[in-house]
Write a structure and sequence with these properties.
Number of strands: 11
Strand content: 5-15%
Largest sheet: 5 strands, parallel
Shape: flat
Strand order of the largest sheet: 2-3-4-1-5
Oligomer: single chain
């Protein structure tokens, strides 16, 4: 007897994250090749940029698990590793350049380990001297095994900062080449570390050349760096961490030729927040992940075929497994239009449809199952949007509340009036951002994250469809269909009581958080909008003193001047702590006066150490570095000194 048609029982679309989907989902057999994945595989691109859930980690997992025909190494920094990199600094270098050196150290050790192991496959009658030197280097610096990334960073930090990295096996002795003992007359910390690191990279390059790897057209050793969002905090040190990684990745090709490649996977909001002088040098390396509706339909069909263990045609999927239409719209169009056009969204939406049908005991998915799933999916996505950008935009919860139970057609003038009603309360709550928390900037932010679209021509354009931001003359905005059910915005014009939009109610929403439950527990931090200038100046001053404290902690300067500098820094920190908080009386004048005083005190301390004959001490040099940087910041160039060059 023929079995009834019941695809829902076996239907499965995969897991939410690439790691789980590869382990026990469908990614291994159902990986969808895209322009981005092909560009990385062929070596045309080395910087993959995409929104959360767009498939960056899927490409990475595919390459690591056999998609790349050569050897790979995967680096995924965690909180501990991120802390090590953020704290790493070298006197004489900007934060971006210093952090590029610690990344270059990590890449060099990975490459050294690979080439020393790979040498065995060449079966030469005599191991080349360059390979033997690399083995000696790894052994001398306790880098004999893979180990944890955090441990490697900790070792590299200690060795680079103290100029004690053992590189004599490459015919380079740091203390001799630098012109003196480490930390004395050999130049800045940065200069010494750069020379030592260059020796290691030259040694690795020599090993590849002696083995003939490039000449034999062997596949390059591929280093992949993923999940940077785990260490991203949107502070100056995090900016420097990622910018340094970009610089280090770029350096790999110059250092090792075609023997080693490095590919970086970075979330779009993180990459777009960077602002550094060499940013234009990465344009040709960059590939943005985009998905068309047709590609998402193909992904759905491929995964349905895998789970049902037979080929599923487009007709069967969308006119058999799923209903042909939902509220009059072709089903795949209905589904895709209510996502942010990325794989994770469509996988989650399809899974919700399948689960709704399974709960109702249906053999196939019906229209009411899709509508039920759409409600749940919308709530998920609005919650996810707030979490995705919680480090970028601290104001999302109270601003989202403005759109509840209204129409999805939004006029710029109406939004401005609504925003003006809560502006004072927002400025009080987010007092570090009063200069930028305006109706126009919030509209720009909501467009950038995909929440709002703008009417152009005969349609609506969303951020993923156009590189153009909302223009000042564009008046007609639209809430993305993905978020309308969660907000109760089912019609162009809202049917709710107009009194919802009074300033009094908005003040209550901002103050008491009395809005929809899906936003109540979303934690946010105050980082995406650039803080007001005087707040940034205060942060710059505090960071400068922190760097001086760390420099002092690793200094072997005589006890008396050491104590004198430490006490001076402690007094300056006490003055910072005594200032009012932003929004509680802190004024630009207070900060500028304090910054000027701090810079002057650092100059005086520098002169004092010079008089004591400690001119070449790293602490002495850093005092001058930090004083110059603070004076530049006071003149308007915030972030251009010892802090991250990308912090602005």
């Amino acid at each position: 007897m023929e079995q009834p048609y019941q695809p829902v029982k076996k239907l499965f679309f995969g897991r939410d994250d690439a790691e789980s989907d590869f382990a026990d989902g469908l990614l291994r057999d159902g990986f969808q090749s895209t322009h981005a994945s092909e560009a990385v595989l062929t070596g045309r691109k080395s910087l993959v940029v995409g929104r959360k859930g767009s498939g960056k980690s899927a490409i990475c997992a595919h390459l690591v698990s056999g998609g790349y025909p050569g050897r790979t190494a995967l680096i995924t920094p965690d909180d501990a590793a991120g802390d090590e990199i953020r704290r790493f600094e070298l006197q004489g270098l900007t934060a971006d350049t210093a952090k590029s050196l610690i990344w270059r150290y990590v890449f060099a050790v990975h490459a050294a380990q690979y080439v020393t192991e790979h040498a065995d496959t060449h079966k030469k009658w005599r191991t080349p001297a360059s390979v033997r030197a690399l083995k000696d280097f790894l052994r001398a610096n306790n880098e004999g095994d893979d180990g944890r990334l955090t441990d490697r960073l900790r070792r590299g930090t200690r060795l680079l900062q103290s100029a004690t990295l053992s590189v004599k096996m490459f015919g380079f002795e740091a203390s001799f080449s630098a012109g003196g003992e480490p930390g004395t007359n050999g130049g800045s910390e940065g200069a010494q570390a750069t020379r030592q690191l260059g020796a290691i990279e030259a040694g690795v390059r020599a090993a590849f050349d002696d083995l003939g790897c490039v000449a034999a057209r062997e596949k390059p050793f591929l280093i992949l760096v993923d999940q940077l969002e785990q260490v991203w905090q949107a502070d100056p040190d995090s900016h420097a961490l990622v910018t340094g990684l970009l610089l280090g990745t770029k350096h790999v090709l110059a250092a090792y030729g075609h023997a080693v490649r490095c590919v970086l996977f970075v979330r779009a909001d993180i990459y777009d927040a960077l602002n550094f002088a060499d940013g234009d040098k990465f344009r040709s390396d960059e590939v943005r992940i985009t998905w068309s509706p047709a590609a998402l339909r193909a992904l759905a069909r491929a995964r349905a075929s895998l789970s049902l263990e037979r080929p599923v045609s487009e007709y069967e999927l969308w006119d058999g497994v799923f209903p042909r239409r939902v509220v009059g719209e072709w089903t795949p169009d209905y589904l895709v239009r209510r996502t942010l056009t990325r794989p994770r969204d469509i996988i989650q939406f399809l899974t919700l449809c399948r689960d709704a049908a399974d709960r109702s005991g249906r053999p196939t998915i019906q229209e009411d199952n899709v509508l039920e799933a759409a409600e749940q999916f919308s709530r998920w996505k609005l919650d996810d949007l707030a979490k995705e950008y919680n480090v970028g935009f601290p104001f999302l919860r109270p601003v989202f509340a403005q759109f509840e139970n209204t129409g999805y057609a939004v006029g710029r003038g109406d939004f401005t009036a609504q925003f003006d009603a809560i502006r004072e309360a927002l400025h009080e709550r987010y007092s570090s951002y009063t200069e930028q928390l305006t109706a126009t900037s919030v509209i720009d932010a909501l467009y950038a994250i995909g929440f709002l679209g703008v009417c152009r021509g005969n349609g609506v354009v969303y951020a993923g469809d156009s590189q153009w931001p909302v223009q000042p003359y564009e008046e007609n905005l639209r809430i993305h269909p993905c978020f309308r059910p969660a907000l109760g915005c089912s019609n162009p014009a809202g049917a709710s009581d107009s009194t919802v939009h009074t300033g009094r109610v908005y003040q209550t929403m901002v103050g008491a958080q009395n809005h929809t439950a899906f936003l109540r527990n979303v934690s946010t931090t105050d980082a995406g909008f650039q803080a007001d200038r005087h707040v940034r100046l205060l942060e710059e001053t505090a960071l400068a003193l922190s760097r001086l404290q760390r420099q002092l902690a690793r200094s072997d300067m005589p006890a008396e001047p050491h104590a004198e500098v430490r006490e001076g820094i402690d007094l300056l920190n006490e003055q910072i702590d005594a200032l009012p908080l932003p929004g509680s009386g802190l004024t630009p004048g207070m900060v500028e006066d304090l910054l000027g005083e701090v810079a002057e005190r650092l100059v005086q301390s520098h002169a004092r150490l010079n008089d004591l004959g400690l001119r070449d001490e790293p602490v002495t040099r850093r005092l001058a570095d930090e004083a110059r940087a603070l004076r530049r910041a006071l003149g308007g160039a915030v972030g251009s000194g010892r802090g991250s060059d990308s912090s602005g």
